[in-house]
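Propose amino acids for all 622 sites.
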C-alpha cells in the first residue's frame, strides 16, 4: 500500500498546472443559469442571509485556528471552508464588491498560514491525520478551489495543490490507508474524494485521479464504509451498532456518508463508471424511502436511524441542518446529472420546510437541530468558537437555489422551481435569454413565465410538474396544453419569442397524510409545504385529537388568513376539524389555525408548535 502511494506522488510530479480542464466522460443534462435575481419571500431570505450571516462573519475568527495548530480532536478547520464555499455561491448570486473583498480576505488569510511542506490545518504535528484533520483539509481545498473557479486566481489553486500533495505524502509515509483515519469508518476523511477529483479536472494530473480511485477501492475493504457494496442495504443498518456512538466504528453517519457520495458522482462524471452512479442512486432511493421525514430531512443524533417510520416520536437531535443542506446538495448533483423531476421535488420539500425552518427570523443564525413538534432552539458554539457547523452549512444549501431554479439543457431551458424573479441563460444557439417568473408560489399555485429573446428561436421549455400536483393547467398564450401529468417534466417544443406567455396553475388543495402503523398522527400539506399548529394562535391544546374535515375526494379546505399581526409569518390558514368527543353524536367542527412549518415557533414570542396532529384510534377502522 505504501509503495502504491509513493507511485501516486511520483506520477506527474513535475507536470505544470494546466489551464485546460479535463473533458468529462459524462455530461450533465442541466447547466446552471448565468445569473439570477430572486424576488418574493425566497429572495428576501437570501438577501437577509447574505447581509446578516455571510457578510458580517469575522474572517480573523475563522483563520485563527490555522495559525495556532495545537488541535488534537476538534473540527474548527471546517468552518473556513464551509464559509468560503457559501460566500462563493452568495457572490455568484449577488456579485457585489463587499462580498468579493470578504472572499479575498478569507483566502489570503488562509494561504498565509500554509506551512512550507504544504499543510493547511489546525492540528499539531503529532496528531496529524487523526480525528477531523483530513476532513478540515477537505474543506480548505473545497474553499480554495471554489474561489479559484470563481476568480481564476492561481495562488488559491497552487495552495490547494500543495495541500493535496502534502496529504498524499503524509498518508504514504504513515501506512497508505485513509479509511482508518478519523471517525465513521473513514467517511469523514475519505470525503476528500470530492476536491481530489476537482483537482484532477483543473490540473490534468493523473496522480489525483489515481488517488481518488484508490479511496473508492479502500471503501470496499473490511475496515472501510462499503459505500458501493452496501448500496442495496438500509443506510441505518449497514454495520453493527458501535460501542461508542461518535467513533471510527460508526457506519451510519448521515452527513459524511452523503458527502462521500457527492464525491463519487464527481468521479463518475470523469470516469463514466456506471457502478458509481448506481451506488448513489440506490442509496438515494433508500434514504428517501426510509429516512426522509415530512419536512424533507432526517437523522437522529447525526445518524441514519430508519427515521421515516419513527418521525412521529420525540426524536433526539432531529434533522441536523448539516444533513438538510447536504441532502439538498446531493439532490442538486443528481438533478444536474440526470434532469429527473424526483430530485427537484425532494429539493423543494427540504428547502421550503426543513432548511428555512432552521433559519431564524432575520437569517443571522441557523438552528443545529429542529424537531417536528416542540420549540425552536438555537444551537451552541462548537470547538471553543462562537459558531457551529450548521451556522456554516445552512447557507451552502440555501444559495444553491438561485442558479438552479431555471437551468439550461442541450435543447432549451428547464424550470425546476417556481420562484419569482429573472433568470439569465444561454439558448442552444448561443443567444442570451432571460426567463421571467411572476408568481407568489407556493402561497398560490399560479405562475406566469415569459422569455426575453433577441429573436425567435426553436427550443424546448421544460416545466417541472410536482408529484403532489394532481390537477394542473398549462397554457402557452391561449392554447391549453393537454395531458399534463404529476411527477413529470412537461416538455414544450416550439419557436419561442418575447411575446409568448406561459401560464401554469398547480394543485394547491390541502392534503392530509396519516402516519405510523395505526395512522395515529396526521400531517397537513399544501403544495410542497407541511403545515403546523403554533400556540401563538390559541385553539385546543396541541395534545388533543382533532380530525381534519375532508371532502369526498379526501382533500382538506384551507382558508387563507391575511392578518398576521406583525408576526414573522409566511403562510397562515384556518381549517375545520372535528374535536374528540365522548358523546354519541360527533361534535360540531371547529376552526384551527395552521401556518407553514418554517414560521412555526419562529415568531417574536416564544411558542410551541406541532406538525403532528394526534388522531383518535378506532378499532373498527383497523
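Proposal:
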Amino acid at each position: 500500500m505504501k509503495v502504491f502511494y509513493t507511485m501516486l506522488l511520483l506520477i506527474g510530479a513535475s507536470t505544470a498546472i494546466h489551464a485546460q480542464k479535463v473533458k468529462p466522460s459524462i455530461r450533465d443534462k442541466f447547466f446552471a443559469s448565468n445569473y439570477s435575481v430572486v424576488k418574493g419571500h425566497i429572495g428576501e431570505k437570501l438577501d437577509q442571509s447574505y447581509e446578516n450571516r455571510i457578510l458580517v462573519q469575522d474572517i480573523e475568527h475563522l483563520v485563527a485556528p490555522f495559525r495556532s495548530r495545537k488541535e488534537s480532536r476538534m473540527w474548527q478547520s471546517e468552518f473556513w471552508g464551509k464559509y468560503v464555499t457559501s460566500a462563493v455561491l452568495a457572490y455568484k448570486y449577488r456579485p457585489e464588491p463587499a462580498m468579493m473583498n470578504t472572499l479575498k480576505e478569507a483566502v489570503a488569510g488562509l494561504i498565509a498560514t500554509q506551512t512550507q511542506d504544504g499543510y493547511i490545518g489546525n492540528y499539531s504535528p503529532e496528531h496529524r491525520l487523526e480525528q477531523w484533520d483530513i476532513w478540515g483539509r477537505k474543506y480548505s481545498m473545497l474553499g480554495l478551489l471554489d474561489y479559484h473557479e470563481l476568480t481564476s486566481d492561481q495562488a488559491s489553486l497552487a495552495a490547494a495543490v500543495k495541500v493535496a500533495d502534502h496529504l498524499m505524502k503524509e498518508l504514504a509515509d504513515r501506512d497508505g490507508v485513509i479509511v482508518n483515519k478519523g471517525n465513521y469508518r473513514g467517511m469523514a476523511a475519505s470525503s476528500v474524494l470530492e476536491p481530489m477529483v476537482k483537482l484532477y479536472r483543473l490540473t490534468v494530473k493523473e496522480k489525483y485521479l489515481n488517488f481518488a480511485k484508490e479511496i473508492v477501492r479502500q471503501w470496499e475493504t473490511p475496515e472501510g464504509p462499503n459505500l458501493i457494496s452496501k448500496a442495496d442495504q438500509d443506510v441505518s443498518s449497514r454495520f453493527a451498532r458501535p460501542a461508542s456512538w461518535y467513533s471510527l466504528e460508526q457506519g451510519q453517519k448521515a452527513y459524511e456518508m452523503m458527502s462521500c457520495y457527492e464525491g463519487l458522482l464527481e468521479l463518475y462524471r470523469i470516469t463514466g463508471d456506471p457502478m458509481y452512479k448506481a451506488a448513489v442512486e440506490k442509496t438515494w432511493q433508500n434514504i428517501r424511502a426510509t429516512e426522509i421525514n415530512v419536512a424533507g430531512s432526517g437523522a437522529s443524533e447525526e445518524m441514519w436511524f430508519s427515521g421515516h417510520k419513527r418521525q412521529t416520536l420525540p426524536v433526539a437531535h432531529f434533522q441536523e441542518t448539516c444533513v438538510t443542506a447536504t441532502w439538498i446538495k446531493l439532490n442538486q448533483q443528481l438533478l444536474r446529472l440526470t434532469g429527473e423531476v424526483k430530485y427537484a421535488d425532494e429539493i423543494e420539500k427540504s428547502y421550503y420546510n426543513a432548511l428555512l425552518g432552521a433559519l431564524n427570523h432575520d437569517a443571522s443564525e441557523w438552528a443545529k437541530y429542529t424537531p417536528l413538534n416542540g420549540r425552536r432552539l438555537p444551537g451552541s458554539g462548537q470547538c471553543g468558537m462562537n459558531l457551529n457547523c450548521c451556522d456554516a452549512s445552512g447557507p451552502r444549501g440555501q444559495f444553491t437555489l438561485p442558479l438552479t431554479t431555471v437551468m439550461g439543457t442541450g435543447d432549451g431551458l428547464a424550470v425546476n422551481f417556481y420562484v419569482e424573479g429573472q433568470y439569465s441563460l444561454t439558448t442552444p444557439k448561443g443567444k442570451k435569454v432571460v426567463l421571467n417568473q411572476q408568481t407568489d408560489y407556493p402561497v398560490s399555485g399560479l405562475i406566469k413565465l415569459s422569455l426575453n429573446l433577441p429573436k425567435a428561436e426553436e427550443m424546448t421549455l421544460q416545466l417541472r410538474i410536482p408529484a403532489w400536483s394532481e390537477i394542473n393547467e398549462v397554457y402557452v398564450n391561449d392554447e391549453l396544453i393537454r395531458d399534463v401529468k404529476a411527477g413529470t417534466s412537461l416538455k414544450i417544443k416550439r419557436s419561442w419569442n418575447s411575446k409568448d406567455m406561459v401560464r401554469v396553475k398547480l394543485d394547491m388543495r390541502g392534503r392530509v397524510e396519516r402516519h405510523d402503523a395505526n395512522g395515529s398522527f396526521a400531517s397537513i400539506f399544501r403544495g410542497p409545504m407541511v403545515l403546523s399548529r403554533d400556540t401563538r394562535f390559541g385553539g385546543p391544546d396541541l395534545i388533543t385529537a382533532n380530525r381534519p374535515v375532508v371532502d369526498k375526494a379526501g382533500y382538506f379546505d384551507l382558508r387563507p388568513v391575511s392578518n398576521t399581526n406583525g408576526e414573522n409569518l409566511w403562510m397562515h390558514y384556518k381549517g375545520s376539524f372535528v374535536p374528540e368527543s365522548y358523546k354519541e353524536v360527533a361534535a360540531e367542527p371547529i376552526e384551527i389555525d395552521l401556518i407553514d412549518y418554517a414560521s412555526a415557533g419562529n415568531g417574536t414570542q416564544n411558542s410551541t408548535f406541532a406538525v403532528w396532529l394526534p388522531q383518535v384510534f378506532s378499532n373498527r377502522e383497523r
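Residues 291-403 form one domain. Residues 1-20 have pLDDT under 50 and may be disordered.
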